[in-house]
Design goal:
Length: 450
C-alpha cells in the first residue's frame, strides 16, 4: 500500500466519489479508511472509531467474519468466475437459490434472480413487473407508484421511482409513468398530521386516489421500503404496509418490497416485510446478503409470478435482463456462508435489543439537546436524529452546524452518516451494549460541539 502522505496528497484528486460534489471532495477530503476489525474501522492516521454506518447498511456481521472470507478464498481457488446466462450454471449459485427459497418462504417468495447489487435488483423488479402483466394479457399496466422520500437506487428506473429530489433533479427527464404519494413521515407531511395511525390512513387514501386517477389497469407495481432508509429512517405505522398490500391486491397491482436495507435482520425481524406481516410479490435484496464482502444481489419472486412465467408457451416469458456478474460463483459462495452465519448468530435478536437501547438513548439525548428536532427508530438497528435550529418551526440545522457535530463525533470515536439534516445510524448487527453506549456518548460530545 502507498504511504499515508501519498494517499492524503491524492485523496479525491483523481477519484470522483458517489453522492458527493467533486469540488467539495477536493476542498474537504474524505476520511481514508485503511483497516477494519469487528465493528471498528481505522483511518490512515491510525484513529479508530466504531462504524455506526455499518459500511453502507451492509456489514451486518462486522468486519471479522472469517467464515465468509474463507468461503470467498476457497471459491476463488475452485471457480473464480463463470456466467449463469442461458445454458450454464454453477454449484454455489444453485445451493444459494435453495437456501434463499427456505429463508424467504415465510414471505411467500420462492424464486431468485441474481444481480450485482441493489440498484440492479430494483431495475430487474421493475422490468419483471411489466413483463408479468404482458404475459397475463394486460400490456397496458406499465406505470409505477412509490413513496415520496423513498430511495430505490441510482439506475434510470430506480431514480425514476425515487422520492427524493436530490437523486432526481440533475438527471431529468427520467422514465415516464412514475408517480409518488406522500410517505408516512410524522415529523413532516402535507397533512400536518403527527398521529402515526391517522397519517397512515391519510397516505393510504392518497394511494387509492392516485390509483383511481391513473386507472388501476395502467399500473404495474407499487414499490416501497418497509422502513424508509436513506430518506431519513422513516418507519411507518404498523397498519401502513398491510394497507398497501390490500390496496394493491384489490387493484391487481404488484407489491415490490425494497428489502435492500431491511432484509437479513436489520429491523429485528428477518425481513422488513415480515416485520409488518406482509407477503410482497417481489423483494429486492443486496447489501447484507454477502456482508458487504462481495457485490451481489437478488430479486426474490412469489409463486404467483413464477407460475405465470414458467407456464408461458409463447416465448414472451424469456427474461431479457441479466448482468455479466449475475450469480457470480464467488458472490454466491460468500452469500451461502453469510446466510448461515446470519442465522447462526441470531443477529435479528441482537438488532432488536441493541436497536431498542439505541433508540431509548437517542430520546434521552433529545431531552438534553435542542438541536434534535426528531428521533426516529425503534425497529431494530435503524435510527436517525433530525437536526434543527428551531424546534418550534422545525427549521433544519445549517450545514456548518451539522459538519461540526459530525467531526466532533468522529474525533470522539464514532463514525456516523450525515444525510441532509439527518444523522443516520445503521451499525453492524453484532454491536454490543457497550458499543451502543459509546455511540450515544460520542453523539453527546458531537451535539455539544454543534
Amino acid at each position: 500500500m502507498k504511504d499515508s502522505n501519498f494517499l492524503k496528497e491524492n485523496n479525491a484528486r483523481y477519484l470522483w466519489h458517489p453522492m458527493a460534489h467533486p469540488a467539495d471532495s477536493l476542498a474537504n477530503p474524505p476520511v481514508i479508511v485503511t483497516g477494519a476489525k469487528g465493528v471498528r474501522i481505522t483511518d490512515v492516521d491510525g484513529h479508530e472509531t466504531i462504524d455506526a454506518v455499518g459500511g453502507l447498511w451492509n456489514v451486518n456481521l462486522g468486519y471479522s467474519c472469517d467464515p465468509v472470507k474463507q468461503a470467498i478464498a476457497a471459491q476463488l481457488d475452485q471457480l473464480p468466475y463463470y456466467s449463469t446466462f442461458r445454458g450454464t450454471s454453477n454449484d454455489a449459485v444453485i445451493e444459494l437459490s435453495y437456501m434463499l427459497h427456505e429463508f424467504f418462504e415465510p414471505d411467500g417468495l420462492s424464486r431468485a434472480f441474481f444481480t450485482s447489487g441493489g440498484s440492479d435488483s430494483i431495475e430487474v423488479s421493475l422490468r419483471l413487473a411489466r413483463q408479468y402483466h404482458k404475459l397475463r394479457g394486460e400490456a397496458g399496466r406499465v406505470k409505477y407508484l412509490s413513496l415520496k422520500k423513498g430511495y430505490h437506487g441510482t439506475h434510470t428506473g430506480g431514480t425514476s421511482v425515487n422520492g427524493n429530489a436530490n437523486f432526481r433533479t440533475q438527471y431529468e427527464p427520467l422514465m415516464p409513468g412514475c408517480f409518488h404519494i406522500p410517505s408516512p413521515y410524522t415529523y413532516r407531511n402535507p397533512f400536518n398530521e403527527t398521529d402515526p395511525d391517522k397519517l397512515a390512513q391519510l397516505c393510504l387514501a392518497a394511494l387509492e386516489d392516485e390509483i383511481a386517477f391513473q386507472g388501476a389497469n395502467t399500473i404495474a407495481a407499487f414499490i416501497m421500503e418497509p422502513v424508509l432508509g436513506a430518506g431519513g429512517v422513516i418507519p411507518p405505522h404498523e397498519s401502513f404496509m398491510p394497507g398497501v398490500r390490500e390496496v394493491c391486491e384489490r387493484n391487481g397491482i404488484l407489491l415490490v418490497a425494497d428489502e435492500v436495507i431491511t432484509a437479513f435482520g436489520r429491523t429485528g425481524s428477518w425481513t422488513g416485510s415480515r416485520h409488518w406481516g406482509v407477503q410482497p410479490d417481489m423483494a429486492c435484496t443486496a447489501k447484507a446478503i454477502t456482508n458487504g464482502y462481495f457485490p451481489f444481489g437478488a430479486v426474490m419472486l412469489s409463486e404467483k409470478i413464477a407460475a405465470v412465467f414458467e407456464s408461458d408457451t409463447s416465448g414472451g416469458g424469456s427474461i431479457g435482463s441479466g448482468y455479466t456478474y449475475s450469480g457470480h460463483p464467488v458472490g454466491a459462495a460468500a452469500a451461502v456462508v453469510c446466510l448461515q452465519e446470519t442465522i447462526k448468530q441470531k443477529v435479528n435478536e441482537n438488532a432488536a435489543a441493541r436497536g431498542a437501547q439505541l433508540h431509548e438513548g437517542l430520546l434521552t439525548l433529545q431531552g438534553q439537546h435542542e438541536l434534535i428536532g426528531d428521533v426516529r427508530g425503534g425497529h431494530g438497528l435503524m435510527c436517525a436524529i433530525e437536526l434543527v435550529s428551531d424546534r418550534a418551526k422545525k427549521t433544519p440545522a445549517d450545514k456548518a452546524t451539522i459538519a461540526r457535530i459530525h467531526e466532533a463525533t468522529y474525533r470522539d470515536g464514532v463514525m456516523v452518516r450525515v444525510s441532509g439534516p439527518n444523522i443516520i445510524l445503521s451499525p453492524p448487527l453484532v454491536l454490543t451494549e457497550g458499543d451502543v453506549a459509546k455511540i450515544l456518548s460520542a453523539l453527546d460530545t458531537g451535539l455539544q460541539a454543534g
